[in-house]
Give the backbone structure.
Amino acid sequence: MGSFLNVCIYRIPLEGSIMRPGSTCPKCNSKILFYDNIPVISYLVLKGKCRSCSQPISLRYPLVEILTAGLTTAVANVFGMNLLGGVYIIFIYILIVITVIDLDHMIIPDRLVGFGLITGIAAIFLGAIEIGWKEAFMGSFVYGGFLYFAGMVGKRIFKKEAMGMGDVKLGAMMGFLLGWKMSVMSLYLSFLVASIVGLTVIITGQLSKGDRIPFGPFLAVGTVLVIFFGQTILEIYLSFMTP
Ligand SMILES: [Zn+2]
């Protein structure tokens, strides 16, 4: 699956088919043989270079494969190999693809957001997740609405596009599957992680003036954290609230 997600990441922004043709080297176009296409292992065997032209292969490919394997294992352990686990797996795969595409191209393809929304609708329809339609729509409204509002305020303050419509649509999609409570928590965690990373790149001087940081990856990280730890965080929070 990690390998397949890499193909999606590479081909979806180019509007190409994700099914065919087979994988080729982007530099020399030679076909990648099946034994050179084994996740992580082939990267190590080939020492990160194309067999024909020695063009370096991005470290991103094995990293996406490892991340996919890790999160798949985590979902299977936490939620089990059932409908709920299946829904979260698909949802997380979509978020991985969106994250890397946003980092590369600063865009969030509509068809991926649409696919995520269909996953959410199917999950409620099949009764895989506990939230109902009303909560899902409220989640969508809260998540998307807040980002839209934050974008407006950001535009006023920074005098340039701070939050794209892609982020708003992504938020509305994630909010649908999370429901409004978990949407609020995901937003909070996203902004928290974004400010930590933002401060770090500013302090270490890796950010030059006028650089844009895509926000989609932070939203995705906040949402994945909520999927795994949302319930626990909520319980801890409530235990402080009740005397
Ligand atoms: Zn090559």
Q: What stands out?
A: The mean pLDDT is 91. Helices lie at 2-11, 41-45, 60-79, 83-105, 110-125, 133-158, 165-203, 216-241.
